[in-house]
Write the structure tokens for this entry.
Amino acid sequence: MIIMTVRDIILHPDPKLKKICTPIEGITDDLRTLVEEMLETMYNAPGIGLAAPQVGVLKRVFVMDCRDSGETSEPLVLINPKVVWSSNEKKVYEEGCLSIPDFFGEIERPSAVKVTSFDIEGNLNSHDFDGLWATCAQHEIDHLNGKLFIDYLGPMRRSLITSKMRKIKKEKMRKNEIEK
């Protein structure tokens, strides 16, 4: 029986979440393990997408699965993803983030995108995403570029969320110290 590891998700504010990630040079066993653990972490959270910097790894890879809970899961692994086309039509979604739990914001993004990336076998793929899938892919690619969804919000709202997240992180650290 293989036991997967659920990784800790880094919470905002953290400098790792603001760094531009480096491209992945090749498919390795370490990368396969990272991807499996990211999927386990994403489903456990629960979330629909998770980028490597959210688990402290500054590499250009993310996982996503936007299927409804009643549907069979079909996770995607996107390594070194690039948006090669985006629609002029925009769509607003209320976005959230596993690194900024319990906070949401209405973000406008292109309603459809074409993304090229490598899969875990090293094959180059092209994905045409629309709707929630397009929003999720763009959100995760933003993570790889050191950008968070709150960066699209006004400065006062962003500042308020950041200040509340600092308090949440402080409380979590205090609780962890008590448990030790």
Q: What stands out?
A: The mean pLDDT is 94. The chain is about 30% helix and 30% strand. Strands lie at 49-51, 61-64, 76-86, 90-97, 100-110, 112-118, 124-130.
